[in-house]
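Lecture notes, unit on protein representations.

Consider one protein chain, 206 amino acids long.
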Amino acid sequence: MNNKKNKRITIGLQIPALNNIYSRMILKGIHSSLSKLDANLIIFSGETPNNPWMSMHYQESVIYDLINSNNLDALILPTAMFSNFCKEGELENWIDKFSDIPIVSLGMDLSKYCENQSSLLIDNGSGLEDLINHLIETHNYKNIAYLGGSKENQDAIERLETYKKVLSEHQIEFNPTNIYYGNFAYSDGKACVKEFLDNRNLMPEV
């Protein structure tokens, strides 16, 4: 590994597109921390597996083939982002490619996939729970529409479960037609409103 050849350790960051706020915030935090540690950072920016909007997905992701234990001491992987379009078993196969490198997972617990890992998990429930409770208890809203992420994304799954849980606690029946699955894109908001109003003839309170 790199630390046997050089005093400075080298950390890899495997991340889809850097042209969104979420990715840039991750990069900013990692860069700040590694600068204080006097460590090298190599960024491998490609695409998420099976992205339906990227017809050139294979070419976009060739850079990931450069990730190996010969040039990295550890790999930071925003797994919640990479799971957006993964079917069952695909994420495990993806992670297995890098099993010989210590991995820090952002957003998902990878302990069931590999031993050589640490996970930084996000609390997807508390803030959303407080928000929905406020809408119901303070404003007496009951018909609450929900714009979520993709069905495969772990963050989106946890947030949707929180939405269902809070409705149930207030004896509000869950209505699946009030759910719109997006992909964390700015355009999802416009598409969601159009779907609710034009196609489903819904007029939620909030």
